[in-house]
What we know:
This protein is of the alpha+beta class. It folds into two domains: 1-81, no CATH class; 82-127, no CATH class. Helix content is 13%, strand content 28%. It is built from two helices and nine strands. Strands 2-1-3 form a three-stranded antiparallel beta sheet, covered by helices on one side. Strands 4-5 form a two-stranded antiparallel ribbon. Strands 6-7 form a two-stranded antiparallel ribbon. β6 and β7 form a beta hairpin. The longest helix is centred in the first third of the chain and has 11 residues, at 33-43. It is elongated, with a radius of gyration of 19 Å. The chain starts with a strand and ends with a strand. The relative contact order is 0.14. The model has no long low-confidence stretch (mean pLDDT 97).
Amino acid sequence: MAHFAKLGVGNIVETVEVVNNDVILDENGVEQEQLGINFLRELYNDPHAQWIQTSYNGNIRKNYASLGFHYDTSRDAFIPPKPQPSWTLNESTCRWQPPVEYPDDGKLYYWDENLHQSDNTKGWVEQ
């Protein structure tokens, strides 16, 4: 199955639809993104809708599109919403990373932005 994200204002993902692979194969059996776009525009009777293919396993556009993700045209990537102000975008994965590495001790932690702001060497708090 092929997956397509509908983009709204600011290239924010509004929905993701599944399209049968047969729909996006051309006469030579080669996947063509535009065929899926055309199919969805016709299906929803919206010739101007912005649809873009996404990949469930992340083979294209870095990350699988989900509701609220931003499609960055310059990176050709779907980027999730920024979880915390101090986190930075990893350019190779287009995923957000905390400024302090997650502890590797088998315990569960949550991020405390206030703690990090008061001491930038901290941020993870044991649950």
